Amino acid sequence: MHATGLELHTETTVRDLEGKTALVTGATSGIGRAIALQLAAQGATVLVHGRDAGRAVQVIEEIELSGGHARFVPADLGDPAAGIQLAKDAGEVDILINNAGFSWFGASADLDPETFDRLFASNVQAAFLLTGALAPAKVARGEGNVSNLSSMAGIIGLAGGAAYDATKAAMSSFTQAWAAEYSPRGVRVNAVAPGPVYTGAADRANTEALGKTTLLGRAAQASEIAEVVGFLVSPRSSYITGAVIAVDGGRTAV
Ligand SMILES: NC(=O)c1ccc[n+]([C@@H]2O[C@H](COP(=O)([O-])OP(=O)(O)OC[C@H]3O[C@@H](n4cnc5c(N)ncnc54)[C@H](OP(=O)(O)O)[C@@H]3O)[C@@H](O)[C@H]2O)c1
């Protein structure tokens, strides 16, 4: 039988984030939702960010039903002022997960300037503003974590993905520069670079086809990405910083 990832996934139950607060952007869906559930299972109080209040409530209910704590912090990250306001609404957080984003695939000639700007505002600028606003308090405490969502698309070229790929390469670059800036004062900054993942955003047939190009011959479940993020923001990864971890079924290894 071929593994699908569902059979492989075993829930991490180590409660090593007790007393910590985590802001997860884009936690109302897909990978961000899985990360929110993962960090709550590890004991963190989770600030569930997104735009869709209905889906946010579902994620919060799921966390609370398992005995965890969460609250909704809405913001449209396409608007820089909303990103700055989100940092204020969040208050002091120990863990920041820069996950929110969207993709656009098509001929480069067809990408209009407004969509290009919105892509970079949501995928890149928002993470920059949030980290800049929230990291100094972590530095002052001498501890904290930032975890960024990059992608294999930031490492290899995907036809039709020039602009999206560049946003994800930026997240990898941020990871190294922020590690250089913040880690000497105790704040670890890492990224995961997933391959194809089954989420609401992704077209299922495309995800499946891309999954077949990986060494494992399949796409990932969102929980398989969340497991790695849960590890990266926990004390179990205490000597890792500035790393971009490929979670792509080996797609970029060959
Ligand atoms: N799926 C993949 O194959 C894959 C692979 C590699 C990397 N990634 C990366 O993983 C991250 C999550 O992707 P996903 O597939 O889980 O996507 P998803 O299911 O569409 O979820 C995207 C999340 O981001 C939020 N979001 C998007 N644009 C926003 C904006 N302008 N303002 C506020 N919130 C916004 C959405 O909030 P609302 O719905 O509430 O508005 C939603 O919670 C992205 O950074 C993506 O680039 C995905």
* Widest beta sheet: strand line-up: 3-2-1-4-5-6-9
Q: Which small-molecule species are bound to the chains here? A: NADP nicotinamide-adenine-dinucleotide phosphate
Secondary-structure element order, N to C: EHEHEHEHEHEEHEHE
- Low-pLDDT stretches: 1-9
Please identify which CATH superfamily we are dealing with: NAD(P)-binding Rossmann-like Domain
Q: Round the mean pLDDT to the nearest integer and report it.
A: 95
Q: What is the tally of beta strands?
A: 9
Globally, the shape reads globular
**CATH fold topology:** Rossmann fold
Output the number of helix runs. 7
Our Rg estimate from Cα atoms comes to 17 Å
The biggest sheet, with number of strands, parallel, antiparallel or mixed sense and barrel status, is:
7 strands, parallel
N-to-C span: 25 Å
Q: How many domains comprise the coordinates?
A: 1
Taken as a percent bin, the fraction of beta residues is: 15-25%
Helix/strand-derived category reads: alpha/beta
